Amino acid sequence: MERRVAIVILNWNGWKDTIECLESVFQVSYDAFNVVLVDNGSSDDSLLKMREYCKGGIEIDSRLVARGKCARPRRLVELSRRQAETESLSPDISIASLSRNDLVLIRNERNYGFAEGCNIGMRFSLSVLDVDYILLLNNDTVVSSDFLQPMVRLGDSDERIGILGPKMLYYDHNGRNDVILYAGGVINPWREMIGYHSGSGEIDRGQFDSGGETGWCSGAAMLIKKDLVKTALLNTAYEFGLEDIEYCMNARKLGYKVVYVPSAKVWHKVSVSWKKLGRRVGRDIPRYFYFIRENFSSVVYLWHVLLFFAIQLPKWAVIYYAEGGDKKTMRAFLEDMRRLFGYMIRGSVNE
């Protein structure tokens, strides 16, 4: 009997990418899964587009996904966040009747951020769906039809495995789709960026196909065992980014293995979410220092303070100047720096 998987996809103002992702997911050859789409308070008509798509009103033009006979949800089941959290389902909805061809859509009334948005989907999957694994999948990804089988099979082979991640390729790297984005995650506290991807930018020739334990798996496509999810969810102190590295580190502390599975493939449209957020010093850097302070020694923390002022701060100054160099841009830069120093003094990432 196949293990049941809940595939949790978070959408925020990105319905076109989400629909392409769904097209690929509903063509997966694995049978025992349910798709839980969490809309994080979108303001771009995402909900209307999802309904239209499920009725067959939107056709997909994709570089990597062909139209398949099972590529569209059979039924759309909509729930408010409150219904999802309290399990207050409509009388005509039977959880037992949900199949792999149904789409559960949870409507959040506002943007809860990446971590909490995913947590809402994971809590629903644990409490309502009878699942053995939960897959966190970015909406700007496309999956291969057979990507679930090798991860589930490997996860079942060793009870100590808690998290599994597929090989990730760039969706479009100068016209190519065989360029590696992620082939295992490395954690090195002495580098400028502590967590980084193995093989990033290399053409995939099988050079990273040995697989095995790794430092961390990207939250863009991360399969997690039910028992681990019951123990811990994502840290909501992070708005977007770093929560996946910390989650894997904590899983290892709990005695779980984190494993890279190269036979499972996912293509990722890198940085789509960052572009929508509008990346800024005040949004990213304070949380990066929070991550370091929470997970590493004070020596490592001080080292990264030095790195920031010697390397990163000049980079950000150049970026802000390139964006305009006017008074408005300078005020934004100074506000970001104020938030950064506020974090360094108070140790809080939230104001």
Concise synopsis of the structure shown:
Helices cover about 40% and strands about 20% of the residues.
Describe how the helices and strands are arranged.
Blueprint: E1 5-11, H1 15-25, E2 33-40, H2 46-54, E3 75-80, H3 81-86, E4 102-108, H4 113-128, E5 133-138, E6 141-143, H5 148-157, E7 161-170, E8 180-182, E9 185-187, E10 195-197, E11 212-213, E12 221-225, H6 226-231, H7 243-253, E13 257-268, H8 272-277, H9 281-295, H10 298-322, H11 327-346
Parallel strand pairs: 1-2, 1-5, 2-4, 3-4, 7-13
Antiparallel strand pairs: 5-12, 6-13, 7-8, 7-12, 9-10, 11-13
Helix pairs in contact: 9-10, 9-11
What does this structure look like?
- The protein is α/β, with parallel strands linked by helices and 351 residues long.
- 38% of the residues lie in helices and 21% in strands.
- The protein has two domains: 5-275, Alpha-Beta Complex (Spore Coat Polysaccharide Biosynthesis Protein SpsA, Chain A), CATH 3.90.550; 279-346.
- Helix 9 runs antiparallel to helix 10 (298-322) and helix 9 runs parallel beside helix 11.
- The longest helix has 25 residues, at 298-322.
- It is globular.
- The N and C termini lie far apart (49 Å).
